User: Which sequence fits this backbone?
């Protein structure tokens, strides 16, 4: 682990309390350092998960009951010869999601191609211009970058509704997530998380941030690994400590996300800050803690589809439905771990697509004998 020094968040002269704000452009999924982010504690009232105002654009009248196009005999057909273009972002997780979407489209009988982009903004722009048909998007990122608003909500349903309603005017739909609880229920949430060691560690019984706070009060000398810049921001670590009533004068070790994972795995830190779907953390046997007080904003990955593409080829929406309905934080983290171990993204994505189809009760095509 790289050399790091301890610090005390109370040493920061800029900490004077006040309302924390996540600013647009300050948080970018995985590719940006954690020190660019801030924590949102004071949020507007959240939309009830089951009460999502507005509706997705309707399936065309010429569609079957599952959204597939019908021919004159009532059979399902796909008359398109052009592949569905799937935009992929610059980081491994977005690439995995894009390749998984492509595999799901193939399982549904469509052809698909992945179009790589070096910047998430370019991928978004390509979708708006019709240069690609679909892409994986993150609700929190869209709240910041597309809506241009601070404070992405911690409630997944609230951010989803806002970005969905906004993007209809841009000719884009978001597939609606299934809203459950915990890391093994949908939706996946690729936001920040503190991680601890899993079994057989004595700390494997810690499952939530509130439980971590209790353990830290019992062990005043236990060290927490966290990015130094994030730790010194008034709207970063101090806000987290305030929400969970953790003393700010306890030991902290300055560590970037990679160092935090190594520190926790080695036992140097009781917990470390990274993201809930960090492949390196999952590969090391670490487990993200549930943010039970909902301090961190929701960054739910969901398929985005151009409305004209969904209208022309309704099977696109059918094919990608299991991603929004079945993808969990745990599954995404484990698949990221396989990529962190060196497996090709195409192989991991192929397996992920079949798992999502199976969870959705879809019939998988029979693979030919070798």
Assistant:
């Amino acid at each position: 682990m790289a050399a790091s020094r301890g610090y005390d968040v109370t040493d920061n002269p800029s900490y004077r309390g006040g309302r924390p704000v996540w600013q647009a452009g300050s948080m970018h999924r995985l590719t940006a350092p954690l020190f660019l982010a801030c924590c949102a504690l004071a949020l507007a009232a959240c939309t009830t998960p089951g009460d999502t105002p507005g509706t997705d654009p309707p399936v065309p009248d010429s569609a079957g009951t599952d959204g597939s196009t019908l021919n004159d005999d009532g059979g399902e057909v796909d008359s398109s010869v052009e592949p569905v273009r799937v935009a992929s972002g610059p980081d491994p997780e977005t690439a995995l999601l894009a390749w998984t979407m492509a595999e799901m489209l193939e399982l549904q009988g469509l052809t698909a191609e992945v179009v790589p982009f070096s910047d998430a903004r370019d991928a978004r722009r390509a979708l708006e211009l019709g240069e690609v048909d679909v892409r994986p998007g993150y609700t929190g990122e869209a709240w910041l970058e597309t809506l241009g608003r601070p404070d992405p909500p911690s409630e997944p349903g609230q951010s989803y509704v806002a970005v969905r309603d906004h993007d209809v005017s841009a000719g884009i739909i978001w597939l609606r997530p299934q809203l459950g609880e915990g890391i093994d229920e949908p939706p996946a949430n690729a936001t920040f998380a503190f991680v601890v060691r899993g079994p057989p560690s004595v700390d494997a019984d810690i499952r939530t941030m509130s439980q971590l706070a209790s353990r830290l009060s019992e062990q005043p000398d236990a060290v927490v690994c966290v990015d130094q810049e994030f730790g010194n921001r008034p709207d970063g670590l101090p806000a987290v400590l305030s929400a969970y009533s953790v003393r700010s004068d306890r030991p902290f070790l300055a560590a970037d996300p990679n160092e935090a994972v190594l520190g926790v795995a080695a036992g140097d830190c009781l917990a470390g800050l990274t993201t809930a779907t960090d492949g390196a953390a999952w590969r090391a046997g670490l487990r993200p803690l549930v943010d039970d007080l909902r301090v961190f904003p929701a960054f739910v990955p969901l398929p985005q589809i151009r409305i004209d593409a969904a209208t022309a080829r309704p099977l696109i929406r059918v094919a990608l439905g299991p991603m929004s309905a079945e993808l969990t934080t745990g599954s995404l983290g484990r698949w990221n771990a396989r990529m962190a171990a060196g497996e090709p993204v195409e192989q991991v994505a192929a397996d992920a697509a079949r798992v999502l189809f199976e969870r959705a009760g879809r019939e998988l095509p029979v693979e030919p004998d070798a």
Notes: The chain has two domains: 33-41+192-288, 84-187+298-359.
